[in-house]
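Re: that chain you flagged

S.,

Sorry for the slow reply, it's been a week of failed gels. I finally had a moment to sit down with the sequence you sent. For the record, here it is as I used it:
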Amino acid sequence: MRALVTGAAGFVGSHLCEHLVSCGDEVIGIDAMTDFYEPARKRHNLDRLLGHDRFTFRQGDLLDLRLEPLFADSDAVYHLAGQPGVRGSWGGEFAVYLERNVLVTQRVLETARDTGLRRLVFASSSSVYGDAETYPTPETLRPQPVSPYGVTKLAAEQLCETYRTVFGVPTASLRLFSVYGPRQRPDMAFSRLVAAACTHRPFPLYGDGGQSRDFTYVGDVVTAMRETALSPWNGVANLGGGCEVTMNQVIALLGELTASVNVVSGPARPGDARRTAADIAVARDAFGYRPVTDIRTGLAAMVAAERASHRDESAGPSFAPALRGRRDLHGSETR
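Prediction finished late last night. Pasting the structure tokens below so you have them in one place:
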């Protein structure tokens, strides 16, 4: 395929571009290189792509770039660009979230409609559910976001559904559940936790550690995104890892993989859901989604990447492909 990836230099976006190129696709990546975290880290994310004959990078803001010729030449657009982070979305920064999550998505959809785009895959978020009423949570449950970030992701997702039903834009919105893996954003819990464990620094834990997430390995996510683009299915689907784990369990497991983590407890933060767990039946039936990377295997990949980055600090965080293993907390080596 000829693919366009927005947010290409980010955590999931760079993994997606690598996966698409490895499958033989021609990829154009777009990223504004915003300063939500160090742009240098984003440039490192592209190290394995720049110079590849099937990858082209364009730096620019999606509200300013001329998108029509790029969309017209693409078989599929993967829209991953946006302003991330639950905690930063309160207060005066909300305007940034509106612009980068809602207004940008509306422009992407307008361009998709005007160019007759054949496929649009949008990266939504489990944050749209907030504190859900049932677990595992199906897509039919009424969304109740508990953060402004979740509100903007839900608005963007609803825009996709509106353009799909009114104008026939072929959109597939994937609600991603706590994606982790090598090159994860530095503000995210696993990234901070692995860095603290490998450098023997304190790890600030917000809440009592009993909060749980349906952690999903990045390799499983990007594989599912391409399978979605290749399928005829449109709509909204959960992408979860199939293994709900508490933070306390993750901390204990990381202690087995590295060393005991020095945890410094603090109060829970506003907007953080207590629990997430995905019902993935829609994704399984629609495009064959089956996550295969267990939490131990995925964490081990993050630890290996973190250690490699310390051995050669100029290389930045390294890429590790999706690893295959049994889907349980302790990650049995049985295949």
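What I noticed first: The first strand starts at residue 2 and ends at 6.

Talk soon,
D.
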